[in-house]
Amino acid sequence: MYDKCAPDVPIENNPALSLAATLYALDLKGFTEIFCPVYSTKLYGFLPGIIQLLHETVCKEGKGQTIFGDLAPESQHHTNQRFFGGRKNVLGLFIHARAEDEESKVNIPPDLFELKIRGGNLSYFDGLPYSKLLEFEFQGTVRDAIDNGIPIISIELEKLSPKSVGMFLALFQYVSVYLAHLNNVNPLGQPQVERGKDISFELVRKYKE
Fold it and tell me: Which residues contact 60 (CB under 8 A, 6 or more apart)?
């Protein structure tokens, strides 16, 4: 992935530069926030790392986009309200993985089959693979965003493995650096982070004295 995203690779073949340029262009159009729902329990743990990369590398001198997210589809019960109903300055960066488990299925007790829900009944869910249900939740939010004119970027891992996850992280490392350069800020500096550490250390010193 480092080779694929290197600076000498043209943007049309460079996934990191392409993603960074897209995010930057949307930032210039007023999409100053990124909603990042993660439709995978196995990938959700990497969300804080992505947030750190983009905030610490890019958000300086009054520039850069705020990124926030949560585990989906749980996030649909709260942050979708912000995404669709709040200020129109948020784009969607959806992360998901191709299903590997098709055997785990929903089991609805027969005595609940006729329970009404959204113009149908619970029997519709009986025998449905959980992976398929998760896919439908993902597609529902994406289609709703498209219908509402909200920009959507979707990243899918075809397979979850140490190699694919490593490539996933390498992608965002390069994205953050390219975004910093597009915003004309130093990707390696973190003055506000260091300032807070200086204050904390001074408080420790005074406390011990």
Answer: 180, 183, 185, 186, 189, 191, 192
